[in-house]
Amino acid sequence: xxxxxxxxxxxxxxxxxxxxxxxxxxxxxxxxxxxxxxxxxxxxxxxxxxxxxxxxxxxxxxxxxxxxxxxxxxxxxxxxxxxxxxxxxxxxxxxxxxxxxxxxxxxxxxxxxxxxxxxxxxxxxxxxxxxxxxxxxxxxxxxxxxxxxxxxxxxxxxxxxxxxxxxxxxxxxxxxxxxxxxxxxxxxxxxxxxxxxxxxxxxxxxxxxxxxxxxxxxxxxxxxxxxxxxxxxxxxxxxxxxxxxxxxxxxxxxxxxxxxxxxxxxxxxxxxxxxxxxxxxxxxxxxxxxxxxxxxxxxxxxxxxxxxxxxxxxxxxxxxxxxxxxxxxxxxxxxxxxxxxxxxxxxxxxxxxxxxxxxxxx
Length: 362
Fold this sequence. Notes:
Helix 3 (27-42) crosses helix 12 (268-281), helix 6 (137-147) packs across helix 7 and helix 10 runs parallel beside helix 12 (268-281). The chain has helices at residues 2-9, 16-19, 27-42, 83-95, 113-126, 137-147, 151-161, 176-182, 189-201, 218-231, 235-239, 268-281, 292-295, 297-302, 320-323, 334-343, and strands spanning 45-49, 51-54, 100-103, 131-134, 165-166, 205-212, 244-252, 287-288, 310-313, 347-351, 357-360. It has one domain (4-360): TIM Barrel (Alpha-Beta Barrel), CATH 3.20.20. It is of the alpha/beta class. Residues 46-286 form the Radical SAM core domain.
């Protein structure tokens, strides 16, 4: 098994069936290797930002079995926000110090194409200094299919309307057999990657996610990670912020209020191994985010010892993961986040959405 680790660290072209053996290594061996890579890149820095999540609606044209956020029998509380609602939330958060608004919604069949673009345009007009991170590739694909624009035109219109970067949602797990079971009808893995590649070609950054801990296998996870590595821009291009994936975010599946009925849940060790393996294999994606909203703050901080270097941010209001049982609904206080990072022996670094350092809390 040690040979597989050494081959992976040296960048040998191993396939998912070979690399899945990394899971058989003990957690300390994997963690030490991942932490060494993380330390070389960032020393003891742990990044976070001041951000606000805004989810305009939970009325969705799709039915994903893992989703607890969209309005359905287990969540019979549909809602739609108006432009004024969104502007009010964004403005209040900006006045409270937020540097980013993260606008991700359901695939709402009632909103018009113009409505989406007008939201971005009006937010940027009202708050020109705020970074707009908006529309997952799944949402872009939905707009393409619903309005016949073509995803390249959707991305061009987003750029013109003021969107600065894209989140990584909608990736779920790339294996099409699993996708057919958990999110049939949603964007394909091939199209998800095409959309991000084109966004990168426009000189813009995005994130990439992987939803794990449900019905996927460990081989599926490795395959997902390898496809992201293959899709990523060369390292020198990423570092110059000229288009590419900023961060990889392993999203832990939340068990409640959905239709998957998963009985076995990954252990803490398996979760940390997944994060370590991602750091080892994704040499050309700069950051690995331990998203506290799905992991919980304690495990997210521990993950900084296992290859992760980021915890996301304050969020303020979190609706998607909390609908599935995560204790993230009210966001996280900045001072408490800084305390948790320091208490774990790391240096908190407030960043902007593109990982430029704003303040180091030494």
